Amino acid sequence: MADSTTLLLQAERQCQRHGARFTPIRRRVLEMIASASGGLKAYELLDRLAMEHAAARPPTIYRALDFLIEQGLVHRIESLNAYVACPCPEHAHGFQLLICRNCGRVEELHLDDVNAQLDARAQALGFRVERQTIELLGRCDDCQEAASQAC
Length: 151
Prior knowledge:
2 domains; two-stranded antiparallel ribbon; Dna Ligase, domain 1; Fur_C; Arc Repressor Mutant, subunit A; globular
C-alpha cells in the first residue's frame, strides 16, 4: 500500500482533475485514514479530529467521508462500518477488500474479471447492480505466522 504522503498527493491531483475542492478538513480526514493500519470508524475519526478542531461534529466527518468516497479516495468497509484509504484512486473499476480479522489490515485487489462476471450474471437475471462490495475476511500472512508459532 502507498504511504500517506503519496496518497495525499494522488488525492490532490484527483480533486484537481475533477474540479472538486479538497478542503483542509477533507484532507485531514483522508490523512488520518491513510495513516491508520486498518479501517477507522467515523466516530474514531471524529474523536481524533475534535482534538484539533473543537467545532468538529458528526456531520463534519460524514460530509468529508461522503466526499472522499465520491472522489474514489476512500472505501467503506461494509462489514466493519469503517473506512480505508484507496491506494489507487485512478482505478475506475470495482475492487475487492481482503480484511484480516486479527490485526485489521486491509488490502485492496482489482480483479476486474470477477466484477465483470458478477455484473454479467446479474444482468442476465434482469438485475441492475448499483453498487458492489466484495469483502474477504481471513488472516494475513503475519497473523497466520504468529498463530503457527504459538502452537
